[in-house]
Amino acid sequence: MKPETRPAGIYVHIPFCVKKCPYCDFYSIIDHSLVKEFVNALTNEMAMYSDIGLLFDTLYIGGGTPSVLESTEIHRIIKKAFSLFQMTSDPEITIEVNPGTVTPESLKSFRQSGINRINIGIQSFHDGNLKFLGRIHSAEEGETAIKRARTAGFTNIGLDLISGIPGQTGKSWLTDLETALRFEPEHLSCYMLTYESGTRMHKDLKNRKFSSLSESLAVSMFGSTGDFLEKNGYIQYEISNFARSEEKKSRHNIKYWSFIPYIGFGPSAHSFYGKRRSWNRHNVSDYIKKIESGTPPVEGKETLTREQQIIEAIFLGLRQKSGIDISFFNDKFNVKFGDIFREIISDLSKRELIVICDDKCALTRKGMVLLDSICAEFVCKELDIEKA
Q: Which CATH number is correct for 3-257, 1.20.120.1200, 3.20.20.70, 3.40.190.10, 3.40.50.2000?
């Protein structure tokens, strides 16, 4: 099936947090005075798109920290989505939670609302790492949240972990992974710490308030992650994502990497369909005022050029363990992938950075660490051809 004909996804951005983590560059605020007005505006924004004519099979409630909302508000959002949009009979409904903001009661209520997948922002099982990351929960609270999610009836639990934290060692990182596996999560997202421009952590790094982990150690941790998790039965399907089975892969996140349509609601949320992309205003107050005036809170939109689509196809394809689907690429852009990139493919193959197999061009684990630079080689080659 063509990506645009497959079931789409709904993303809902909840922009509230208890505390802003110093490494996070997602839009969020800690002032909760506008929560009720926001939920009203959010449901009204959803109603503006009730005639969109798409079939959906995923609903992802992210943020921010969605679990700071009352469970009744989360239930209202889900109910509204189901009343407005056509959903498949077995949708994946995900909520992101922070261990410091959930209780046995709220978790049980989330499950009763129809949420069947929960993503818990553990980040680390070491208190020192959590303190550096500015998290509001302790290692013990993280473990308790996982246990409570199981007790509440969740059979699809994802955990987020971060490697490359200053002071972290290869051994302590493996301890984090071992601790995570004790709970037998269905999904693991293992991210390398990055210092995004504009974040407090990026500023502190520039001001030398701390030193980043050495690149060689961070790369070593990345390699050990895949080796360890695959030995323990997990499938790596994207650079940072692992699942216990094909069925437990994040159906929603796969849409972002596969040109499958998705529509986003809430401040800063993005939408994508075909060649068109749009994004909402960031500021919560402005977002609410725009909707109250009866106007969609869209801040900008664009139609992707052929050049932009090629760049995204390369970058998103190489992010996935399966790699770039060469036949899809050739059909979509009316080119011959193997001919255009013959020299690059030959060089990267000799360096054991990519493999060509079953009509797919995929990064090796060694190549995944160099994703950005490898993508740049492909893109520069394609752009040279376009200009010729």
A: 3.20.20.70
